[in-house]
Design goal:
This protein has 473 residues and is mostly helical. Helix content is 79%, strand content 0%.
């Protein structure tokens, strides 16, 4: 089998290394602070409700900004937006590390979310452009593989820094790593050629979409706490619907400079990929949230131990992401996305059998299958979605995919939380929630088989196994 390395120049490989380094930084930051919250509470003498916004505020701003950032990357250059975003991320990481009170830290985290949102779709677009056309499917695998590694490193590094140095080092470490990524990118990634792209900024589209997303994500984040029919939640929901309606009307009437061009809005194959992501992303968020709860409250694990307990998911996620690219090239989108969706469904079905007496070892088979499903599913859906769109809009397509991953996870987590809190015990609630996730997964499998583009033929599968045999010989 011909390797990717033989077909790529040293500059391309260095550029990919810089993108993967950036991916590690952003992905690590999503999970590293979870285990540091108690230490942050103690440092600033604050409560968990306030400290939790160190994570929630970042995630909200990231989710709200991602589509705008993707469009700006396609309009003004992915390399340029990468530099700006990574600089913002590094600078406010340093400010967060030096924070003297909780509000200074929260403001730093919010602005870090803007920087991270700018970096993420820019990196994705650059990664797809760096690879040869015949190897473009590897981009999704590389990107999601390093995302999995970064997610896995987060709890481990965060726990180690918090225990042996200070939680502030979770922020300090971002600065030199970001600087290296910037310097390598400056050296090896060619300048963008965007002279022929409309540079009119769709301010109304940005405002309406951002407002709609912010209101929706706030509803999903605080709905359980305030009550789904409270005036605040109903008001936010109404605001979200109104903003999305304004956004839809403006985008349909707009010209080439609109935030989300018509060819993306009306692309049925791309919409199918988004529907699958929206349906199945609840699984990942639910598992990452409730499995540590089980480990801490039922198995007696510390926060750091619970973070380490998720490694079977995250390491298998990373490993399968790397092999998902070559498999995608051979098997095609329909089969790869369906395999991932089936593994996600099976994993949640297995994990739904947990009881108060279930040992950690009883969770491992389900977590391994979950990790494999995540690796296949995310790499395949990312590649399938982006390759359906004009390469000039790759960053925007990637940003929309990431936004729906975030939205699907938030919706799913809200549904799972509602199921758990209404059950008589935590164990029974988690079990019921995971059964619901398995049902959602089964629906996703049906959608994949029925609607995802790409034939599943005997010839394609036979050719795949024949190729594997030849490679082995």
């Amino acid at each position: 089998m011909v390797s990717v390395r033989q077909k790529m120049t040293p500059a391309q490989l260095s550029g990919l290394a810089a993108m993967m380094l950036g991916t590690l930084v952003i992905a690590n930051d999503f999970t590293a602070l979870n285990v540091a919250l108690p230490a942050i509470e103690k440092t600033f003498d604050t409560d968990v409700t306030t400290a939790q916004w160190v994570i929630t505020g970042y995630a909200l701003v990231f989710g709200v900004s991602i589509v705008t950032a993707g469009r700006l990357a396609d309009m003004f250059g992915r390399r340029r937006i990468f530099f700006i975003g990574m600089t913002i991320f590094a600078l406010f990481s340093l400010i967060g590390a030096l924070a003297t009170d909780i509000w200074m830290l929260l403001i730093a985290r919010v602005i870090m979310g803007i920087g991270g949102a700018m970096v993420w779709p820019a990196m994705l677009g650059i990664t797809y452009n760096l690879l040869p056309v015949e190897k473009v499917a590897l981009a999704g695998g590389l990107f999601m593989g390093f995302t999995g590694i970064g997610n896995a490193m987060g709890p481990m590094l965060g726990g180690a820094f918090t225990e042996y140095l200070s939680w502030r080092w979770i922020f300090y470490i971002n600065v030199p790593v970001a600087a290296i990524a910037i310097l390598v990118t400056l050296w090896v990634v060619p300048k963008d050629r965007v002279d022929d792209i409309e540079k009119t900024v769709d301010y109304l589209g940005i405002i309406s979409l951002s407002l709609g997303l912010l209101a929706l994500l706030l509803v999903l984040d605080i709905g359980t706490e305030l009550g789904w029919f409270s005036p605040v939640i109903l008001g936010l929901l109404g605001l979200s619907v109104a903003a999305f309606c304004v956004f839809a009307m403006m985008e349909r009437r707009g010209g080439p400079g609109v935030l989300v061009p018509r060819e993306i809005l009306m692309n049925k194959a791309f919409s199918t990929v988004i529907l699958v992501i929206l349906t199945l992303n609840a699984v990942y968020f639910a598992a990452l949230f409730f499995l540590p709860q089980f480990m801490v409250k039922e198995l007696g694990y510390s926060a750091a131990q619970a973070g380490a307990g998720l490694l079977p998911i995250l390491l298998v996620f990373a490993g399968t992401s790397f092999i998902a690219g070559p498999l995608y090239i051979r098997l095609g989108p329909k089969l790869m996305v369906t395999i991932g969706a089936f593994c996600l469904t099976l994993s949640m079905l297995l994990l739904s059998f947990l009881e108060a007496t279930t040992p950690y070892s009883g969770l491992v088979p389900g977590m391994i299958i979950l990790g494999a499903g995540l690796g296949f599913f995310y790499a395949a859906t990312t590649t399938a979605g982006i390759t359906l769109i004009d390469p000039a809009k790759a960053s925007l397509a990637g940003a929309i995919i990431l936004m729906f991953q975030d939205a699907g996870g938030a919706i799913g987590l809200g549904l799972n939380t509602a199921v758990v809190v209404t059950a008589p015990t935590l164990i029974e609630g988690i079990s019921r929630a995971f059964i619901m996730d398995a049902v959602l997964g089964a629906i996703g499998v049906v959608i994949c088989l029925a609607l995802v583009d790409g034939p599943v033929t005997r010839e394609r599968i036979t050719a795949f196994f024949r190729k594997e045999k030849q490679d082995a010989e």
